[in-house]
Amino acid sequence: MACHSSEPNFLKNFQIPHYIIVPESKAENIEINCDAPMCPVLVFVNSKSGGQLGGDLLKTYRTLLNEKQVFDLGEEAPDKVLRRIYGNFEKLKLQGDQFAVKIMESLKLIVAGGDGTAGWLLGVVCDLKLSHPPPIATVPLGTGNNLPFSFGWGKKNPGTDQHSVESFLHQVLKAKEMKIDNWHILMRMRAPKQGSCDPIAPLELPHSLHAFHRVSETDELNMEGCHTFRGGFWNYFSMGMDAQISYAFHSERKLHPEKFKNQLVNQSTYAKLGCTQGWFLAPLFHPPSRNIAHIAKVKIMEAHGQWKDLHIPSSIRSIVCLNLPSFSGGLNPWGTPNGKKRHERGLTPPFVDDGLLEVVGFRDAWHGLALLAPNGHGRRLAQAHRIRFEFHKGAADHTYMRIDGEPWKQPLPVDDDTVVVEISHLGQVNMLATRDCRSKSVHDDPSTPHHDDVEEVDSEDEDSITDEFRKFGAADTFKIPDEVDLSHLS
């Protein structure tokens, strides 16, 4: 492959030679003085996301780039791809191939799919602990698209034609790198006296949460007589009525997948379910026994210190632990606390790399609609380095939970046992962000403007009625089972 550095060809910035991607192929005779591509990329597409869009996008990328650097996640898992390619990088490095070294050091990843698909790839990169972990750009192909929206890639499904793809690649070329916190979630429950716990019927866990014995039989966090699950997330963990709506949506989509081929239709269906499930009339449809304070004791650790109890107001029906400033399709439940709250309560803006989760509570959908108003936010409960939920026997026999858009119906104790959910900081991965992204880093220049930098107007009582209407892996931890329908990873 001869050097054509003088040839004005935009796509050359992204293309990777065949011999680097396919280890068994013959090494190409690349001139020593030939510049490596400025922005070599590996592209992962969930061809089942976004209806027909995923398949169309796959074809366009394969037409514009070396087709061997574009992967269909329905055919090959990302951990296998990255293990193979990075293994080849190391082999070529030992052979003195400086061109391959340059490719490895400047490599970037593009993932097209829903938040579940993007989280899958992030988990793989985190678990593989690569010598040069590549930063990741996300193409929004799901329903909520919180991850792409948080880093400036938009939330609407993109065009799949050549012009749209080249426009996206142009953004990738100019994108900046940002760190993002990775959160580990552990769930432990007493093993049933009879029957199996693989899975616990009727428990349908999200793909990123798996039983320990699938990970390691000797895991030190396992406990005798209990079944323990763990996984990870980047955007949020939520519990309560918002997760109940999400569960109803996913259940409906499993029954009638043919009705969920369009992003606008999906979003309108979601809104309708919010009404039929009683989220807008929560005091009538949602019994107090399911309110967060009635079913769980919550403890937080603000820094590397001691656990302390977190008071949850009795009216809170939904609690969200946020890492990114985007929830439910782009809303920001934490907002930007004003100077008084920062001083009195020690609150900060929602940085994505500060090792803290923002814990927000909602009473009902009307409270949530406050997010649509200027400076609107939910009930700020805490910022925590770790958070722990303890569920004991009570009036409710189940609740609903979700991780990064994937919900499940969680059974609660019926005897004198305890269900524990604990979330803790695990590490960080590299993301690609556009210059005007809404996510903030603790390392940002204070003079850099952000979309959400306008402080809220101070309010003495966040629960007041007037305020309510004024504001609204590579490791098995992250591995997606072979039998999973990837169209549900949105």
TrEMBL record:
<dbReference type="InterPro" id="IPR001206">
    <property type="entry name" value="Diacylglycerol_kinase_cat_dom"/>
</dbReference>
<feature type="region of interest" description="Disordered">
    <location>
        <begin position="437"/>
        <end position="465"/>
    </location>
</feature>
<dbReference type="InterPro" id="IPR016064">
    <property type="entry name" value="NAD/diacylglycerol_kinase_sf"/>
</dbReference>
<dbReference type="InterPro" id="IPR017438">
    <property type="entry name" value="ATP-NAD_kinase_N"/>
</dbReference>
<dbReference type="InterPro" id="IPR037607">
    <property type="entry name" value="DGK"/>
</dbReference>
<feature type="domain" description="DAGKc">
    <location>
        <begin position="36"/>
        <end position="189"/>
    </location>
</feature>
<dbReference type="GO" id="GO:0016020">
    <property type="term" value="C:membrane"/>
</dbReference>
<dbReference type="GO" id="GO:0006952">
    <property type="term" value="P:defense response"/>
</dbReference>
<comment type="subunit">
    <text>Monomer.</text>
</comment>
<keyword id="KW-0346">Stress response</keyword>
<keyword id="KW-0611">Plant defense</keyword>
<keyword id="KW-0067">ATP-binding</keyword>
<dbReference type="GO" id="GO:0007200">
    <property type="term" value="P:phospholipase C-activating G protein-coupled receptor signaling pathway"/>
</dbReference>
<keyword id="KW-0418">Kinase</keyword>
<feature type="compositionally biased region" description="Acidic residues">
    <location>
        <begin position="454"/>
        <end position="465"/>
    </location>
</feature>
<keyword id="KW-0808">Transferase</keyword>
<dbReference type="Pfam" id="PF00609">
    <property type="entry name" value="DAGK_acc"/>
</dbReference>
<keyword id="KW-0547">Nucleotide-binding</keyword>
<dbReference type="InterPro" id="IPR016961">
    <property type="entry name" value="Diacylglycerol_kinase_pln"/>
</dbReference>
<dbReference type="Pfam" id="PF00781">
    <property type="entry name" value="DAGK_cat"/>
</dbReference>
<dbReference type="GO" id="GO:0004143">
    <property type="term" value="F:ATP-dependent diacylglycerol kinase activity"/>
</dbReference>
<comment type="function">
    <text>Phosphorylates the second messenger diacylglycerol (DAG) to generate phosphatidic acid (PA), another important signaling molecule. PA is required for plant development and responses to abiotic stress and pathogen attack. May be involved in the accumulation of PA during cold stress.</text>
</comment>
<protein>
    <recommendedName>
        <fullName>Diacylglycerol kinase</fullName>
        <ecNumber>2.7.1.107</ecNumber>
    </recommendedName>
</protein>
<comment type="similarity">
    <text>Belongs to the eukaryotic diacylglycerol kinase family.</text>
</comment>
<dbReference type="InterPro" id="IPR000756">
    <property type="entry name" value="Diacylglycerol_kin_accessory"/>
</dbReference>
<feature type="compositionally biased region" description="Basic and acidic residues">
    <location>
        <begin position="437"/>
        <end position="453"/>
    </location>
</feature>
<dbReference type="GO" id="GO:0005524">
    <property type="term" value="F:ATP binding"/>
</dbReference>
